[in-house]
């Protein structure tokens, strides 16, 4: 989960499911409890020493519930569709990618995706990507599927076609083909939670405030105030859309708010890292804000534990962030690399660039960690430090 607010929303969702007698609710609640126990920081003992037996029992219960609740869903919706690649967290699907496989029609998985979007397990589906190009049937079907009334999924980001490697192109909704406009207009209500929409690498401007530039500037000032309402889902959606307003003044007002909203800012990092061109004032401010966010351990931890395979710029950013929290991303990066290697090389996709970026970030994090361990023996505050002469001898020997 990206923030404490989202974790609380998930806990409330689990309570609702349990009240309805859904076993998924117990899975989510038990998984959240196991995570809380694992992250506990007692003063006198490590979590494993103090909570070892309790944590073990909780994790065993999570595995039992996954076999009973999650595995049947996987067997029904994903087992026969290798092109569907879901990511799971706390028993919920948090991201879904429809990979373009040679010889497999892109529309084949349409029914499976339609079923998934209606299940409670998709309530916190945050990122959806369809690799098929604009001529693909699922490329056109997905917006209509997301807008159907009985769909529970509320994705933050929808990527249709090529994943963005930079934010150099932005298009207006009115400039799209009429059929695309009709399908996408059902998703633009901020209450639906859609923050970003990409069509073949180009970001589509999503409305956040009706009116001219002056009206939007006043609305941005109100949205960015310190005493603005709490970080509700709708406010975060409007902030995310306003961050890419055509007006530079509006964008600067919004970006200055990010360091003030705590871990909610973590979800903004991935797109800010794609900024490479634009007005000098905007580029400078983006770099300054990213540096500020990188000094917040909670934000770095949230990015390390939640970024997706389409957001590989985050891996490079994490590699330069404080090592104590950036190191949490290593298992996630290793899993992404394993998935990319298993998929093989396909020149028609952008997987090679993602693979290179992930490998470079992993190498940097490991090198920094090795250096930290090597030089820790010279720190007199370290409990593993030795007398100076012994430390020098060992260092010269190594």
Spatial extent as radius of gyration: 23 Å
The amount of helix comes to 40-55%
Percent of sequence in beta strands: 5-15%
The whole-number mean of residue pLDDT values reads 84
* Total beta strands: 7
Count the DSSP helices: 17
Largest sheet: 7 strands, mixed
> How many structural domains are formed by the residues?
4
Order of H and E elements: HHHEEHEHEEHEEHHHHHHHHHHH
The end-to-end distance, rounded to whole angstroms, is 42 Å
Task: Trace the largest sheet across and list its strands.
Answer: 1-2-3-4-6-7-5
Spans of at least 5 consecutive residues with low confidence: none
Briefly note the structural class of the backbone: alpha/beta
Identify the overall geometry: globular
Can you walk me through this structure?
With 398 residues, the protein is an alpha/beta fold. The protein folds into four domains: 1-76; 78-207; 208-295; 299-374, no CATH class. Helices cover 53% and strands 8% of the residues. Strands 1-2-3-4-6-7-5 form a seven-stranded mixed sheet, covered by helices on one side. Strand 3, helix 5 and strand 4 form a beta-alpha-beta unit. Helix 13 packs parallel to helix 16 (351-375). The model has no long low-confidence stretch (mean pLDDT 84).
């Amino acid at each position: 989960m990206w923030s404490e607010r989202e974790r609380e929303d998930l806990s409330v969702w689990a309570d609702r499911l349990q009240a309805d007698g859904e076993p998924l609710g117990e899975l989510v609640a038990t998984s959240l409890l196991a995570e809380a126990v694992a992250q506990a920081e007692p003063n006198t003992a490590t979590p494993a020493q103090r909570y070892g037996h309790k944590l073990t029992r909780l994790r065993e219960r999570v595995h039992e519930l996954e076999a009973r609740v999650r595995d049947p869903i996987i067997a029904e919706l994903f087992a026969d569709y290798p092109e569907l690649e879901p990511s799971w967290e706390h028993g919920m699907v948090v991201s879904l990618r429809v990979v373009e496989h040679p010889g497999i029609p892109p529309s084949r998985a349409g029914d499976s995706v339609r079923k998934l979007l209606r299940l409670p397990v998709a309530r916190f589906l945050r990122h959806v990507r369809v690799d098929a190009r604009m001529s693909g049937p699922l490329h056109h079907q997905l917006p209509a599927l997301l807008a159907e009334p009985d769909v529970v999924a509320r994705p933050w980001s929808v990527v249709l076609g090529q994943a963005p490697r930079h934010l150099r192109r932005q298009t207006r909704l009115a400039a799209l083909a009429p059929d695309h406009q009709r399908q996408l207009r059902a998703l633009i209500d901020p209450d639906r939670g859609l923050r970003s929409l990409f069509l073949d690498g180009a970001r589509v401007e999503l409305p956040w405030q009706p009116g001219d530039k002056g009206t939007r500037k006043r609305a941005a000032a109100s949205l960015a105030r310190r005493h603005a309402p709490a970080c509700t889902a709708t406010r975060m959606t409007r902030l995310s859309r306003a961050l890419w307003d055509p007006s530079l003044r509006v964008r600067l007002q919004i970006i200055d708010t990010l360091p003030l909203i705590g871990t909610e800012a973590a979800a903004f990092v991935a797109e800010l890292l794609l900024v490479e061109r634009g007005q000098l004032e905007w580029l400078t401010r983006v770099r300054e804000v990213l540096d500020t966010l990188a000094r917040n351990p909670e934000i770095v931890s949230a990015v390390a534990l939640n970024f997706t395979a389409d957001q590989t710029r985050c891996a490079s950013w994490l590699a330069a962030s404080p090592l104590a929290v950036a190191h949490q991303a290593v298992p996630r990066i290793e899993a992404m690399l394993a998935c990319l290697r298993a998929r093989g090389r396909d020149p028609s996709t952008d997987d090679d660039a993602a693979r290179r970026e992930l490998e470079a970030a992993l190498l940097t994090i490991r090198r920094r960690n090795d250096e930290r361990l090597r030089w820790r023996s010279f720190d007199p505050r370290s409990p593993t430090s030795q007398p100076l002469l012994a430390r020098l001898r060992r260092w010269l020997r190594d």
